[in-house]
Write a structure and sequence with these properties.
- The chain is of the alpha+beta class.
- The chain is built from eight helices and 25 strands.
- The N terminus is likely disordered.
């Protein structure tokens, strides 16, 4: 029996898998919260726990320091801080999780961008004694920039403020108002003590005034499925399959992972950037022929017509095709140690396509403390977030990042050594807070063949 529209919609995302990231200021207890989640959900192996107990005893601590379950680098253990993104995989009977424990220091903002870029939920920790601080606002702004659909405010160390409800209520009110102003669609506030385990996995006996879910309960039940009607179907071509064998003399298939939405046999599609059209003649999935395929399945599409298609082309439904352009305006986070300058020649990687490009303008740099725009900075340095205008050598089909985090994102790469310079998000920064676009700067005189 053919799949219904509703059936396809529920398959677009795996509801049993949640990708989430933690963020917060230094010493707010992120790694302790992650360790508590792993420990209390019985997701820690015995030998791992014994190693943490030994390390804790060697540091003069009587109880196991659960933060050591995630702070794996030697420098992290020595300094008592998180430097790199620590990924952890664990599961409960209700759901599987991929967790990214991200750093809290300002100089590691780029690491948070990496960890939260694919997250469906972000847990932002706040020390109940300190309330909402500058770094809290910074992490809320990054979550909003990355269009993370669900944000949890975990007000930690409630045991150090005597589990006082007014303290929690004031922090939750301030944070919720700020995050909502950035366009964060859903905010859930939970009072916890990661060290004592209150409201992390088990409900707290000290906060009977709180009737909401524990952190784990919320993680297990938050919806992560996507509505098929709002998904723009996209297949970046990774490889053209032509066996030219006696068994398959005329086989020509276009293989790749579906980035979003679903494709059906008989559907009219357009190939970008050429704009040529055809119909889906067949779909091969894991050696079998299917009528429908959806994200994130890896498939091979067969088309009715022989079209010149190669790696980097994008196959989309003809009635839902993005516009192609050589001029890209985007919000970027600069992740490299060397700066990004106006006039710089780069490579732009979008899905499976990589093209030459020039940074034509850097209209502004975002000050995340108060969301003000610093105009015409001339360059971006490590951890800076700003607006850029890029001109590409060939047309690209980018969706707005607000519509598709997969096909609305790109990387700028150093053509000399392949270093990733910048992570980009096409379109407006926040819902209505993006800086107004300025006229692109005049092209540099010394483009040496890179003037497009």
């Amino acid at each position: 029996m053919p799949s219904t529209h509703t059936d396809d919609a529920t398959r677009l995302a795996d509801p049993t898998l949640l990708r989430f990231a933690t963020a917060g200021s230094v010493d707010d207890g992120k790694s302790t919260l992650v360790g508590r989640l792993l420990h209390d959900s019985k997701s820690v192996l015995t030998d791992q726990l014994e190693a943490v107990e030994r390390a804790s005893l060697s540091r003069g601590q009587e109880a196991p320091d659960l933060a050591l379950l995630t702070d794996g680098l030697r420098a992290e253990r020595e300094q008592g801080i998180t430097i790199d993104v620590a990924y952890r995989y664990f599961a409960t009977p209700r759901r599987r999780f991929i967790l990214a424990d991200t750093p809290g220091h300002v100089q590691y903002t780029r690491n948070m961008v990496t960890g939260a870029s694919t997250a469906e939920l972000a847990v932002v920790l706040v020390d109940a004694r300190n309330g909402v601080v500058e770094q809290t606002r910074r992490h809320a702004a990054v979550a909003a920039l990355l269009r993370v659909p669900h944000v949890v405010l975990a007000v930690n160390k409630m045991d150090l403020v005597e589990y006082a409800e007014p303290v929690f209520a004031a922090i939750a009110k301030e944070f919720t108002a700020y995050a909502a102003s950035l366009g964060v669609p859903e905010i859930t506030a939970i009072p916890i003590s990661a060290l004592a385990g209150d409201n992390v996995v088990e409900p707290s006996a000290h906060m009977d005034w709180y009737g909401g879910p524990t952190v784990l309960e919320h993680l297990e039940t938050v919806p992560v499925s996507h509505d098929l009607a709002t998904c723009h179907a996209r297949l970046p071509v990774q490889y053209v399959i032509r066996p030219q064998s006696a068994e398959h003399p005329d086989y020509r298939g276009y293989a790749g992972q579906i980035a979003a939405g679903a494709f059906r046999v008989g559907e009219e599609v357009t190939v970008l950037p050429s704009g040529r059209t055809s119909k889906v003649a067949g779909i091969d999935l894991l050696g079998k022929t299917v009528d429908t395929a959806w994200t994130p399945q890896s498939v091979t599409l067969l088309l009715d017509d022989d079209i010149d298609i190669s790696r980097g082309d994008l196959i989309v439904p003809s009635g839902d095709a993005p516009t192609t352009s050589q001029d890209i305006e985007a919000t970027v986070c600069h992740v490299a140690d060397q700066p990004l300058n106006v006039g710089q020649r780069v490579l732009l990687k979008h899905t499976t396509r990589t093209v030459k490009a020039i940074v034509k303008d850097i209209p502004s740099r975002l000050t995340l403390d108060d969301l003000s725009q610093h105009p015409a900075p001339g360059k971006l340095v490590a951890n800076d977030i700003g607006r850029v205008v890029v001109r590409t050598a060939e047309p690209l089909a980018l969706d707005a990042y607000a519509d598709s985090r997969r096909t609305g994102s790109f990387l700028l790469i150093d053509p000399a050594d392949g270093t990733t310079l910048t992570a980009g998000m096409a379109g407006a920064a926040f819902s209505d807070s993006a800086a107004p676009a300025e006229e692109p700067a005049a092209p540099a005189d010394d483009d040496q063949g890179w003037d497009f």
